[in-house]
Amino acid sequence: MSEIPGFDLQRAVAQVAREVHERWVSLTERTAFVGGAEVEAFEQAFADFLSATGCVGVANGTDALELAIRALGLEPGDEVIVPAFTFIATAAAVTLAGGRPVFAEVESTTLNLDPDDLRQRITDRTVGVIGVHLYGRPFQVDAIVEACREHRLWLIEDAAQAHGARWQGTAVGNFGQLSTWSFYPAKNLGCFGDGGAVTGNDTELLDRVRLLANHGRTAHYEHSEVGRNSRLDALQAAVLNCRLPLLEADNERRRAIAQTYREALSQLRDVRLLEDRSDRLPVYHQMTILLPQRDALRDHLAARGIGSGLQYPRALHLQPAFAASGQRMGDLPVAEAAGEQVLCLPMFPQLTDAEVDTVCKAVVQFFD
What is the total count of domains within the chain? Predict the structure, then answer.
């Protein structure tokens, strides 16, 4: 029985191993490990890829969020609305920056932030919103941007899973005041360690992010405020410079794999697929299905050597870390049900057609 992993980094490494090796040898020979040409080249290339004004490389996606929040002027106790169904970093960054995350419901059709529920959460203490392009699917940009504009709130796009996704033809990352990215190895654009970035179209905000990410430094040993040390490593920037030119083709392959899954699974009565809409171009960081028998199907797949993932098994307002939010079981039923039913099938661009077909047959067999 052959193994089909949920994600296989070895295949991604093989695509760029020779070029990465050459770049890393050059860096080690020059001992050019912090900043420098590789980092600058990636920042420019990624900004160009997004058609954004600029990019600031940072140490990881969580730092990207916290630095963006701080750059936007969050004060202690300020409220920031975040979706209840996402990775913990989205909300944790608000807490780390001194604010209070307020959890909002997600849409049942996409699991992205629900604009109508968002509006119900706005108070006189609300200063901003973090929208997540979950699983590589753009959220309802127009509705959320309008709500923020109407109430004079800033918007951060958490695009950690959405490298190359588009809303009405425009790359995500161009709609909020700032956008944040993770380059964790399993991302659509991943390095071989940790890495992240903040992008945007406001030069002053980007300059402030860069200042905060470099100890608040204005000159050598001169610091205008307390910042932190959060830099994109030159070795990881080299990996990203190798992988960025492959991203569009990789995303297109992900869409082809997703289409195969959709055609094979759409008629299964108990399986719910997330909705695809013509106004947005997803990049399928995950191939996500929902079903009441989630755990049984996962065991069924594992017995056949097929990997799967749970992203995410518990809504954030139910996490012990956010008990102080005051939001409890029953408050956000869509997010809560998603945690109990969501299952991520194997999804990475190096999957073969035969492997995808095997996964589809195994899922169908579960219902026979």
Answer: 2
